[in-house]
Every structure is written in C-alpha cells, then in structure tokens.
C-alpha cells in the first residue's frame, strides 16, 4: 500500500515537472517570437529610413549621390541573391544539371574552341587597340608574355603543367585583364576608382599623422569583420576564383583574404586545414601573401602620398594573378582534400566595441613595426651605400651604391613592364629596394619622386634624373604593391609553421619559390596596368613646353622648369589633350 502511494506521488510529481517544463518552453518560444518580431520591426524601420535617405539624396543632388546609389543597389542585389540561393539552391542546381552534364561530356572540344577564341581576341586586341596607342603598351603586353614564359621555363615540375594548369593561368590572367579594362579603360570604372581613392585620401586628410590613419583603418576592418561584411566579401571573391580558375577552396579563400588582410593574417582563414594542404597549395597560399598588401598597410602608403586608387586596384588584380602564377610555378601532383567555401568559418569578437578595440590594439604594433622598419632599413641602406662607395673608390668608381646595383640588375624587368628607357633605371632601383629591404622604404622613395614632379622642379640636376613620368609612377605603384621581400619571407614561414609545426619542412621549401612567384604576380599586374593605361597620362606639360615654347616663360630642354611655367603651359595648350591636373 505504501509503495503504491509512493509510486502515485512520483507519477504526480513527474506530471507536474512536465507541465512546468512545457510552460517554460511556451514562455521561451513566446519571448523568442517577440524578440524576432522586434528585430524584424527595427530592421524594417532601418531599411525604410535608409531607402528614404537614398531617394532624398538622389533628388537633391543626383551627381553627388551616385556613389551611394550604386553601393546600395549592389548590396541589395547580393542580399537578394544570397536569400534566393539559400532557399532555392537545390532547385537551381537540379535545373542546371543537364547543362553541366553536356559541358562535361564535350569539354575537350569546348576547351579548345575557347582557347582559339581567346587567341583571336588577343590578336584583335593587339592590332586594333594596343598597337594604335603606342609602343609602351606593346612592350607591357610582351612583358606579360615574357613573365609567363619564364615561370613555365623554371617551373618546379614543367612536364606536369597540364590542361587544368592552363585553365588556371588563362582564367587568372583573364580576370586581371577584365579588372584592368573595367577599372582603367572605362569611364564608369575610372569614375568609381577615382571616387574610392578620393574617399580614402579624404579620410587620410582628417588625421594629422599617418599612424592615426592606420589605427582608424585597422578598427574599421575589425568592425566590418565583426558585422560579417568582410567574411561575406572574402567568401564571394574566393568562390568566384574557385569556380573560374579551378583552384581549391582553401587556396582561393586565402588569395581572396590577402586583398584585405596581411600575409600572416590571411592563413588564419584556413587554419584548421593547413595541415592537410598539399605542397602546391602551401606554395599558392604563400604566393598570395607576397603578391598583395593588407588594408591597414594601405593607409601607410596613402599617407606617403601614393595614389590610393591605384593601390586599391593593384590589390584586387594581384589576387587571381598569384593563383595563376603559383599553380604554374609549382604544379599540383597530389590529391587535394575536398573542402567547399561554405565550410570555412571565421572567428570574430563578442561585440562591435570589442572588435574596434582589437583593431586599434593591433594597429599599435603595426605602427611601431612600420616606424622601426623605416628607421632600421634606411640606416642599413645608408650603411650599404657607404661601404659600396668606399669599395668603389678603390676601383675609381666612388658613385657605386646599393641603389645603383639594383638599377642595373632590375632594369630589364622594369623596362618590360612598359616603363620608358630613361625612367627604367629609377623604377628598377625601387624594385630592388622593395625586394631586398621592404616595401615601406620603396614607397617612401617613390613618394619623394612624386613630390619632386608635382613641385615642378628641374628634371635633371647634374645629369641625374630627379623624377619620373606619371606613366612610370603608375607602373611602379603596381609593381611595388606586395609583401614580396626577404623580411616578409621570414614572417610568412614563421607564421605558417606556428599553425602547422609538422609541415615546417614543406613550408620552408616553398619559401623562395613563393617569393619569386609573388614578385612576378606584382610585375604581371604592372604589365596589365601599363597596357591598359590611357596614353593621356604619358604627356606632361613641361615636356611639350621644352620643345615648342620658349617665350615668355623661358623654358628650354634639359633646364629648370618653374611651377609658373607649367601653369602657363597648361593654360596655353588645351587641357583635354594633356594631364594638367597636377600642374594647375
């Protein structure tokens, strides 16, 4: 009897617990529904207010609001696209299955048809466009072919460069050309590029020093990372390269991350998979880090006076080039692990304030690193020059210096990028400084050349060229835009080895080849920029004055040019024919 009463009591208690849990679940679900409704209500109000603001801005001043309108439309398109693919992706892939099967069955012939069409397009491009705009553009194009040939000639496994490697090369170079044409040769692309550059330079003008700008950019990138925009953008770019170039998800993701992150930060995107990468994939990851710069370093170069628009373009164009050259220079001969881009996850902070604080904290070390590097490497450069001058004096060559040696060693490379003969030695010197010292010293030297040109001083002093043309400056900006130097090589090997200690030997063996491939990727980007640049920027007003005008500004060839004489030249000659914006 007592057992029955106890069992009955336990049963009633269990029923009460179930009822209580049911009530708690109902309350929790109700609170979630209320919270979800509140979120939807707040988001709808925010979206409505933003749309109203865009419409009002377009009504008041459409020309000024074009940038905001384009960004809003592009964002809306991708949000709708993601929403549709999340719900209907299975249906879309099922509908495209017959097309995919047909392409796979006839891919051999389709591939060769595409190759022939590309060959015809290149020939037409050379005959109808490049050859009509001058010899410099032709030199840039053949320089691009030369770099590709050298990578194939000195490939790690030249006989393993199969058809899929050619697909990666053609698609990577094709993406470079598409970016170059859309950005540098179309009116809308140039306008968008100049708008982005002005925004970046405008922000830079708001700070009294470049280190404050670097801290600001670091915090902004961390916030974008937290809210999900940066991971979303990196995934989209990586997915495009994976689909078009046929590369793996890991190396595509790392290459896309290098556009915004540094060569030691981008491997963090694929950290769980580094141990499983093939040697060729490790080489591709390292090459991508050497071929581009990070978003925060971009602020330092802008503060030097380098044009922001070209830095942004160079970072974007070098990403597909790094994959194309890496797979050519070290072809794949192992089976890669199958990972999809949506399997790659990224960590982030707990809230916006923490993300901003983390970004600002990282900038402290970055600013200190930049300052110390500049001081140390400039001192080393002065020391090397002094030693070489002392040794050269014994051989009746006191002008011997590290810069002079670099100018002769790298001159053929700079000339093949499309730099004029008289400027090629100076650009070669910058490439040597960037490779053996670092990119900060090289861009600091380039900024001095830019300032001298803008000041309108003499082009030659004691038969020594004081600055280079705008065309050469632009090509140099693209060629220097990367972490391809020996200091970065040590950082890259150390960072990757810390993430995968058991792959240290493979990582070290890839280092030197990855450094060369990263440098060549930057040179290819410079070649495409040199081929795509409009010939208008090749003409400086003082060059025209030196051969056509002598009075009343007293301008003669090889002599000094004052700022007033340049302004007079640009006033005399129609500005639509020449680039007079820097002289006025």
From TrEMBL:
> Which molecular function terms from Gene Ontology are attached?
pyrimidine- and adenosine-specific:sodium symporter activity
Q: Where are the transmembrane segments?
A: 68-85, 106-128, 134-154, 166-186, 206-227, 239-262, 282-304, 366-388, 400-419
Which residues, if any, are the signal sequence? none
Biological process terms in GO annotation: purine nucleoside transmembrane transport; pyrimidine nucleoside transport
Q: Domain Concentrative nucleoside transporter N-terminal, which positions?
A: 142-202
Topology relative to the lipid bilayer, per the entry, is: Multi-pass membrane protein
Give the species this sequence originates from. Acanthochromis polyacanthus
Q: What is this protein called?
A: Solute carrier family 28 member 3
Q: Which GO terms describe its cellular component?
A: plasma membrane
Pinpoint the Concentrative nucleoside transporter C-terminal domain residues.
310-530
Q: Name one Pfam family in it.
A: Nucleos_tra2_C
Question: What InterPro entries does UniProt report for this protein, alphabetically?
Answer: C_nuclsd_transpt, CNT_C_dom, CNT_N_dom, Gate_dom
UniProt cross-references to PANTHER family, sorted A to Z:
SODIUM/NUCLEOSIDE COTRANSPORTER, SOLUTE CARRIER FAMILY 28 MEMBER 3
Q: Which family does it belong to?
A: Belongs to the concentrative nucleoside transporter (CNT) (TC 2.A.41) family.
Domain Nucleoside transporter/FeoB GTPase Gate: start-end pairs: 213-305
Keywords from the UniProt entry = Cell membrane, Membrane, Transmembrane, Transmembrane helix
Q: Where in the cell is it found?
A: Cell membrane
